[in-house]
Specification:
Jelly Rolls; mainly beta; 9 strands; five-stranded mixed sheet; 28% strand; elongated; 1 helix
Length: 199
């Protein structure tokens, strides 16, 4: 018969070996794709969902592209999930997350992108058209879009869509740039001069 002290020793040893495994946490938060030296995201394929305000996978978090390199991809690799009536009804689209840690005027520009018919819009909730803050069709001319909006601190969803048809998709390259927020100059007020009382 095996002495009790040997059984206890083996039990203590197994518990010590199993402790680190039992203490490991299962983190479900997805890791972001690496950034290329130019600042553009390396992978154009949607692989994860971020934030509570979008039930669909986002193409990427473009916060680190703010004032940095362009965001590139191809909407023909995506499906049609969004629309901003009467636009984007059948075209594939990509959705991007932008986190603002300070208020700023931000411009999303496809002016240097391929010439297919784009339509873009910015939302607080990606799947709720009632939260659309701004939209643009041909802000650059030649079918390409450019959108500018004043954004407080918060999370925003930028959706790059085709104008309408399922065939309106293609490669894209857009930039996200901050601009100084416009502060209107106060209009000087004049104090009326009292009319002299006749004596």
């Amino acid at each position: 018969m095996i002495p009790i002290r040997h059984i206890l020793s083996w039990g203590v040893l197994l518990a010590v070996l199993a402790f680190p495994v039992a203490c490991q946490r299962n983190f479900s938060t997805p890791r972001l794709s690496p950034v290329t030296p130019e600042g553009a995201w390396a992978s154009p394929t949607p692989t994860y969902t971020l934030g509570p305000n979008c039930p669909y996978p986002v193409a990427r978090d473009i916060t680190f592209n703010l004032d940095a390199g362009p965001v590139t991809g191809n909407t023909c690799n995506s499906t049609n999930r969004f629309m901003d009536l009467p636009y984007g009804t059948s075209a594939p689209d990509d959705v991007f997350l932008l986190r603002m840690d300070a208020p700023a005027r931000v411009t999303f520009s496809l002016c240097g992108s391929s010439a297919w018919d784009t339509f873009v819009y910015l939302r607080l909730l990606c799947d709720q058209s009632s939260t659309t803050l701004a939209r643009d069709d041909d802000g650059c001319g030649a079918l390409r879009s450019r959108l500018t909006a004043d954004l407080p601190i918060g999370e925003y969803y930028f959706i790059l869509d085709g104008y309408s048809l399922a065939t309106e998709c293609g490669p894209y390259s857009f930039t996200v740039q901050r601009e100084p927020t416009f502060t209107p100059t106060p209009v000087p007020t004049s104090t009326p001069t009292p009319t002299p009382t006749p004596t």
